[in-house]
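Handout, page 2. Input:
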Amino acid sequence: MHAGPKNLITDVAGLKVGNAQDEVLKSGSTVVLGDTPFTASVHVMGGAPGTRETDLLAPDKSVAAVDALVLSGGSAYGLDACSGVVDGLRAMGRGFKVGRATIPLVPGAILFDLLNGGDKDWTDNPYRDLGSRALHDASDHFDLGSIGAGTGALTAMVKGGLGSASLVLDDGTTVGALVASNPVGAVTTPGDRHFYAAPFEINGEFGGLGSDPASGLGLNLESRKIAAMSMRENTTIAIIATDATLTKAECQRVAVAAHDGIGRATVPAHMPQDGDLVFALSTDAGPAGNVGLIGHAAALCLARAIARAAFEATPAPGDLLPCWRTLNA
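Output:
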């Protein structure tokens, strides 16, 4: 296995990612769009998820494919980003056809960033517009860090953000991950220098500093975020993609396996106050996939993407937490 040419989820051919954000709001939205509808499923392991239309993705439900997936800040308000994407897709003539009606199918998930220092005193919910803007921004190249759904994301000790990574398997299958990392837990070990995901790093993609040589990690659960916000509403939300042909049930198994990547990169993970969720999609462009190997690669990609999210985060006025880059300049 090796990293894909862009080291992004869009190394999976036929996918685009769009981002929109508001720096004053300190929040944003992200959309993953395919050239054609794709097979998808989902698995939730956090205790406080916020979702839209995820029931459609259960293997026993009749919907065979969806048009896009959305990750957004904004807690429950952020679910309206899906509506902006639905509006845009309908205008493009994309969606499920029922007689003369066209219904774009756009599941989504949100993270909590309402107390991160941004101005949330809006009159009209801004997330529908952010979803629409993200859709129109969709491209196979995109930035990481403080952008899209990761704009206002915070880990326990440093700013989180939007991250991505990819792998190409020996049989040519491509697997990619996209994540908005905003967990209860820390992605850096005590001292803020090393990443928990360091053993899985490729080509210095998040600093190349290696693993923390200390032992007894995980015993110190210090959190600047809890001290700054006096609460624990959080969440890591992610999308795994592959070009191998998978059924909905197989996509669900990949989503389950990918959660290992959250546990490898975030300590602690899957807390009652997290809404940790992973979508997994297949563009069905290649031969039937090796589900076990794809799930393993998905976990590796997701761990790396979480570290890249914090590594690429950038400072902004009013931030509650420092960036990794600022602490390690």
